[in-house]
Amino acid sequence: MTIAPDQEQPLVGQRVQRREDGALIHGRGTFIDDVKLPGMLHLAFKRSDVAHGRIVRIDSSVAESMPGVELVVTGAELKEPLPPVPILTPFPAPAHHAVTPDKARYVGDPVAAVVATDRYLARDALAAIVVEIDELPAVIDPVEAMTGAPALVHEEFENNVALRIVSGTGVDTETGVVDDSALRAAFEQAEVVISQRMRNPRLAPTAIETRGVVAHYEAGREYLTVWATTQRPHTHRHYIAPAVGLGEHQVRVIAPDMGGGFGAKKIYGEDFVAAILSKRLGRPIKWIEDRSEAFMATTHGRDMIGEIEIAAKRDGTVLGIKARLIADIGAYEMLLTAFIPTLTHGLLSGAYAIPMIRSELIEVFTNKTPTDAYRGAGMPEAIFFVERAMELLARELEMDSADVRRRNFIPPDQFPYATQGGSVYDSGEYERLLDKTLALAGWERLQAEREAARAQGRLVGLGLSFYIELCGIGPSTMFPSGGWEHASVTVERSGTITATTGASAHGQGHETSFAQILADQFGIPMEDISIVHGDTAKVKQGVGTVGSRSLAVGGTALRLAGDKVKAKMATFAAHLLEAREADITFAKGMISVAGVPESAMPFADVAAYAYVPTTLPRDTEPGLSAEAFWEPEGLTFPYGCYIVQAEVDRETGEVELQKLVGVDDCGTVVNPLIVDGQIHGGLAQGIGPALSEEVIYGRDGQLLTGSLMDYAIPRASDLPRFELDYTVTPTPLNPLGAKGIGEAGTIGATPAVVNAVVDALAEFGVRHLDPVLRPEKLWRIIQGETS
Amino acid sequence: MIPASFRYRRATSVEEAVAMLREADGEGRLLAGGHSLIPLMKLRFSEPGVLIDIMRIPGLTGVREVDGGIEIGATTTQVAVEESDLLRERAPMLAEAAEGIGDPQVRNRGTLGGSLAHADPAADMPAVMVALDAEFAIAGPGGQRSVRAGDFFQDVFTVDLAEDEMLTSIRFAPLRTASYAKLRQKASHFAIVGVAAALNLEDGLCRSARVAITGLSTHAFRLPVVEEGLRGRRLDADTIAAAARDAAAGVEQINDDLFASETYRAAMAEVFVRRAVTAAAGRV
Amino acid sequence: MSETVPISITVNGTSREAEVDARLLLVHFLREDLGLTGTHIGCDTSQCGACTVLIDGRSAKSCTVFAVQAEGSEITTIEGIGDDEALHPVQEGFWAEHGLQCGFCTPGMILAAVNFLERNPTPSEAQIRRALDGNLCRCTGYQHIVNAIQYAAKRMAE
CA-to-CA distance for A466 and A142, rounded, in angstroms? Predict the structure, then answer.
């Protein structure tokens, strides 16, 4: 069953059903735990159950003698052969060993590894390993940690400070010299200054599939094949090869079907251990993370305190924003740990023309799971701060939430617009989108309904947020992991197309949307096009699927590779049809001469000719295949507006989300069905942190939300039906005009929900609330406790 | 997560199950739907040496009328309770409480007896049973005995059941004017507090009431102060509110966790007593 | 070391006999012993529902059932639902309405929905959302899943 797209119309823009689904709805995907090889062994990790302490002794003698146990290794034994886990950021960072050799720095820090013939036996062996740790005080509160108390997570990082950066207006990035005069003047002139300390909770990404790896080293061939849950197989290969003493050419990384990533699926210490032990034992080794393990072992996201000051005139014009940002990055740095919070600064202007922005960012080590990219990656933090600040301002000035934003929007004729936060926004028509959202929601009617509900004693609130997102990640000068993407397009001799992309999909539907692009480009049916990704042996190069970049960067690379092939095909066709290349057109499976309908050949015939040419045009080679690397000149900035209606139960403090209306602008929409899905999923991941999701540690550093019985990700019954629409403002930065949509909902939903709940509790004099808005927190406000 | 090893026995009669428990000498645990026990075993919080599967014992499953009362077999699944026409008609509180347990898959496998014998401090059914003053039939080496629900639940995961005894059925008098209301913990769907109110109404007056609470403390128990406040009165909103006001007063060891502090739980006890009693009174 | 226990289970209409470790979870029996890898594992505390199968027609979390408990039962996994020529209406709905992204929770979602629609062929949206209480999805925000089940309900009523 498929609903055939309308072949008479361009496929880009149509709600084409996904071709990925045909296998997945039968359970025929191949996910990491489905990979099974002959002679495969199972790896499991013994993890620290204390937050901070020196390893005194590890006794694995009983475990080693248990049935099926092949090997037990400790961190001390792995320290020599394995290099530290890679870190891509340019800042100083502590060495991070896959299995810690000396000191445990968070609950879940691996201290030993077991290899057994079966996962049940591996688990039994773990239980038999005795680990003696001399406990140190746990560093839990990041603000206290900045004084060096109660201990140092890494001795070489004084006061537990990993990084301190001052950025924005008056900061010379070359010299580091800071000039405060303009900023001070702005705040002195201000008629209103509002200060608020805010906090973004620590989150667990919680893809429904946990992480895993299968490493298979073939001795003799000296070749390592790794199946891994990774959003970036080529990066994975680049780092895993030297770690096990091989060249990149001796390693193949395959990202099989993947059950979600959200930024958290990348290279980890476990991948190194599996690879080196496979090499040592000469057997394939599999490791699959348990869910309770994932809560400790997979990187967390967010966890940032923002001390925000906003200066404005009484008419609502914002004069400046100052922010002191404290990021609790946990115990170690991973690939991009230190980089992620720096993105917060880049979006502190929100959608607004703010003449002065200054931030001080301090990243702090604590005895918690390391943080790294998680859907939004530094941006939800920024937009939460800005959109809460705008709301505080609206309230202070008794202005409508929409009006205060309208007053400050960057006008459409100002693009490209360089913010004081250091970003250059590509394009936008913010007011048009705001108006569309207000109309879709019925803003005035909702306000009237709110007043009516309040008259009945109900606690109903409205929240609005206007988000902006930084995506389409490139160029390389701005991103430590590379800002380009690669693609190849081959027209096969039968006239079908095989294309590859370095953007490795895991639910985003590239196989569908990328095929739509090529189908339009070549004028052939989608069914004749296949998109290959996620395997370094099939895909020459790639950066990967992160930061909502796949379509804008990967899609463009594909289009450009297609252009090259198409140009060559046009040369061949012109030769065969005895026409000028410039007159050759591609449509409906035919290659024709414009204006001469009888002068045409089937697409497949030109393809066949390319591989068995009778006579070749001058200066051409046979075949139809080309590749392209593409690196954008700058970032794209999608945006959108969400309006939420929420009601708080006066007796219990429970929040009911009654309505969520939104309009998004991600530039050109290739497949609206897929874009809707991305927004929906993003919204759920933005609503979760507002109402129920938070990773919580006890004062002793124990992880208190270590399972899905405690960490509440939204269920279907927690969410309203989302009412969405679009505006389309293409980006000038790529030929597709596409910006990116993966993180939009996540960024915009949290402040919209929090704004709605704060509004619902207005009668209690609440100014600000930090998520998570658990019932008890709200109930206490209703009881008259101050927030 | 993988449970530790155990020996598996399948009982075909109550007598055999009891004999197997005896033989296991403290190492045995009964296995019904397994939805309380297996998650604990997977996390290795529980490592029984012998599991005795009682799901195949004939006659231990089902909801039936017996001598004007209702009897539910211990291995009856929560979904069977939820879907029972007899219960919907004559004891709707049970179906209502069952509907709110966990999720559909959990209700399809989890059993009423298993939940009661496990006695999680936040489980729903113990409060329902206490409010109905249900009688639990227990089989042991010495034969049958019975115990009132109110005496059965003793402490955290602790009930009046010896190592070699098993709960075989639950019996209670049908009652329409009863209701269960709970505040759900969002992740697990267990009760932060859950209140079961069973009212004996006559001529618009509450002759007597049994109101039990779960989630508040170590186990489910009745709230005599509330019951006293309802007895002999016409149940208008003010009366109910007044009776509920001191719902948690005098309760020692109110639970305090990530999801609800002691203060909040105590306050929710009042709210959910009010809601449960109001709903029960509305069932006339 | 635990002993092995003989079991006889019908899976997707085929009778299967095996000697299994008593502690073998049904989900591992299906995935490892029978190679039916469409049933997934997403958690260890019975919340996520990725491992949902039908046991004697009822949805169940196969990570919270020992294989020995399923003795004599009829199990239906995603591999036993519909085929390429004739998709089950729920599968059709998931495809038509974009009810999946990564596809990891999908088999469990489909089986939960199949069982639900058998019990309630004309559900409201609120009932559908409650029926999914035992299945977590991190990609879709559930809206397209709800649409998929509405689509299936309509198709099944035709």
Answer: 29
Tens of pLDDT, residue by residue over C75-126, are 999 999 998 889 999 999 999 999 999 999 999 999 999 999 999 999 999 9
> How many residues are given for chain B?
284
- pTM, two decimals, is 0.97
Q: List residues bridging with A471 in a β-sheet.
A: A636
The ipTM (two decimal places) reads: 0.97
Determine which of A3, A18, A24, A659 to mutate to test the interface with C (most C C-beta atoms within 10 Å).
A24
* Residue A277 near residue A167, CB atoms below 8 Å: no
Could you report the per-residue pLDDT of A457-482, keeping only the tens digit for each?
A: 999 999 999 999 999 888 998 887 78
Residue C90 CA, distance from chain mean position: 12
The answer to whether B237 contacts chain A (CB < 8 Å) is no
Contacts of C103 in chain A (CB under 8 A): 20-21, 23-25, 29, 257, 259, 507
- Read off the tokens for A687: 């609503």
C-chain residues near B1 (CB < 8 A):
44
Strands B50-53 vs B63-66: parallel, antiparallel or unpaired: unpaired
Residue type at position A310: I
Chain C residues within 8 A of A506 when measuring between CB atoms: 102
* DSSP E strands, A335-483: 357-365, 417-418, 424-425, 459-468
**Closest by Cβ to A291, choosing from C43, C98, C135:** C43
Inter-chain Cβ pairs, chain A and chain B, closer than 8 A? 44
CA atoms within 13 A on the CB side of A514: 35
CA distance A774 to B183: 12
Contact between A26 and C77 using a beta-carbon 8 Å cutoff: no
Cα A563 from Cα A572, distance rounded (Å): 14
At A637, the pLDDT band (50, 70, 90 cuts) reads very high
- CA C35 to chain CA centroid, Å, is 15
Q: How far apart are CA A628 and CA A486, in angstroms?
A: 6
Residues 6+ apart with CB under 8 A from A175: none
**Mutation choice for C interface testing from A37, A65, A206, A208 by most C CBs within 10 A:** A208
Check A681 against C48: CB less than 8 A apart: no
Tokens of B63: 């909801």
Q: Nearest to residue A405, comparing CAs of A444, A445, A351?
A: A351
Closest CA to A261 of A209, A221, A301: A209
Query: C44 vs A506: CB contact, 8 Å cut-off?
Result: no
pLDDT tens-digit profile of B185-221?
999 999 999 999 999 999 889 999 999 999 999 999 9
Question: First-to-last CA distance in chain A?
Answer: 55
Q: Which of A747, A698, A769, A670 is nearest to A141 (CA)?
A: A698
Nearest CA in chain B to C61: B105
Structure-block tokens of residue B38: 């297996």
Q: Residue B195: is the preceding peptide bond cis (ω within 30°)? A: no
| Environment class of A113 (CB within 10 Å of its CB; exposed 0-12, middle 13-18, buried 19+) | buried
Distance (Å) from the C-alpha of residue C96 to the closest C-alpha of chain B?
25
For tokens 């399809």, the residue is B108
The minimal CB distance from A120 to the residues B2, B188, B261 is found for: B2
Which helix (H) or strand (E) is A225 found in, with range? strand A223-228
Q: Is pLDDT at A2 greater than 50 in this prediction?
A: no
What is the tens place of the pLDDT at every residue in A520-572?
999 999 999 999 999 999 999 999 888 888 999 999 999 999 999 999 999 99
What chains are in contact with C, requiring at least 3 Cβ pairs below 8 Å? Answer: A, B
Cβ-Cβ contacts under 8 Å, C52 against chain B: 105
Q: Which residue do the tokens 């680990």 mark?
A: A131
DSSP state for residue C33 in the 8-state scheme: I
Which of B2, B120, B192, B257 best probes binding to A when mutated, by most A CB atoms within 10 angstroms? B2
